[in-house]
Design a protein that fits this description.
Oligomer: single chain
Protein name: ATPase
Number of helices: 12
Order of helices and strands: EEEHEHEHEEEHHHHHHEHHH
Shape: globular
Low-confidence stretches: 1-7
Pfam families: BcrAD_BadFG
Number of strands: 9
Strand content: 15-25%
Helix content: 40-55%
Radius of gyration: 20 Å
Mean pLDDT: 94
Largest sheet: 5 strands, mixed
Length: 301
């Protein structure tokens, strides 16, 4: 049986869209989770059509999970936290979308991740997943670092780790760099025997394809591979420096989220690790909270 929404009790959906996946969660007005759905990547930098398709699919799955009909999307007030919409043109493209919701409010995935991590309170957050970026919000001041996308930025991210490993291995196979276990890892990963086999699997591919290599690079580093250690440490040093810049606003709380947040901690500077607090809620909660705030503002106008 479908859930009922009244004018005074709207339902909200928080959407977290990034370089690898899009997660949507439907919440009641008091913040209870009603249903969740996960679909493919939703970063407008890599295609609006794919982004909209992933938002619609994750919404459809969330509605079904909540016991609602697919057509009930028109009852939802949506908050979208998306990678890539820090670029003004892409933000406008998303805002202009003929969306399936009752209302839609758009901001960056960094913003919603920070809201979620601290449950609406001030704080700082670093996302280290397919990409990497940082955000701090204290009082009326915000600081955003990175978020430029692969391969212009995203240092220390999963995609960056995969790219740097592939670059080194290709040099090694051509005789310009030392060959280590990282070389064998990459050849075995793609089940190929030479450089062109690697190129065939990676040339022109998305950031998520490179990010898929990150765990293997970390495994090589943890096993003592000197090249992998150098790559991981360079990325982790950048993340530590990013954190210190965010700390310049003196946030009360600091959290790290994303697929590499936990495995990278062992490589971060001790002063940064000491400040890490647990995330209080996921980015989808932050997107929902953002939508609630914006929706309530619209009612008071």
């Amino acid at each position: 049986m479908g859930l009922i929404q009244t004018k005074d009790q709207p339902l909200f959906i928080g959407v977290d869209g990034g370089g690898s996946k899009c997660r949507a969660t439907i919440y009641s007005v008091d913040g209870n989770v009603l249903g969740t759905g996960v679909a493919g990547r939703a970063n407008p930098l890599h295609g609006l059509a794919q982004t909209f398709e992933s938002i619609e699919e994750s919404t459809r799955l969330a509605l079904l999970d909540a016991g609602m009909k697919e057509s009930d999307s028109r009852l939802l007030v949506a908050g979208l936290g998306l990678a890539g919409v820090n670029v003004p043109r892409l933000y406008q493209d998303v805002v202009n979308w003929q969306h399936p919701f009752a209302a839609m409010y758009v901001t960056t995935d960094l913003h919603t991740a920070c809201i979620g991590a601290h449950r609406g309170a001030d704080g700082a957050v670093i996302i280290t997943g397919t990409g990497s970026c940082g955000y701090s919000h204290v009082d009326d001041t915000s600081l955003s670092i990175g978020g430029y996308g692969f391969a212009l930025g995203d240092k220390g991210s999963g995609a960056w780790l995969g790219l740097k490993a592939a670059e080194h291995v290709l040099l090694a196979l051509d005789g310009f760099a030392v060959s280590t276990s990282l070389t064998d890892m990459l050849l075995n990963y793609f089940n190929v025997t030479d450089a062109l086999g690697i190129v065939e699997n990676l040339a022109g591919k998305s950031s998520s394809c490179y990010a898929a290599l990150a765990r293997n690079v970390l495994d090589c580093a943890n096993d003592g591979d000197a090249v992998a250690i150098a790559i991981v440490q360079e990325g982790a040093d950048y993340i530590s420096e990013m954190a210190r810049k965010l700390f310049s606003l003196n946030p009360v709380r600091f959290s790290m989220i994303g697929g590499l947040a936990e495995p990278l901690q062992a490589w971060l500077s001790a002063d940064v690790v000491a400040k890490i607090s647990e995330t209080l809620a996921p980015p989808e909660f932050g997107a929902m909270y953002f939508a609630q705030q914006e929706f309530n503002k619209s009612l008071s106008v």
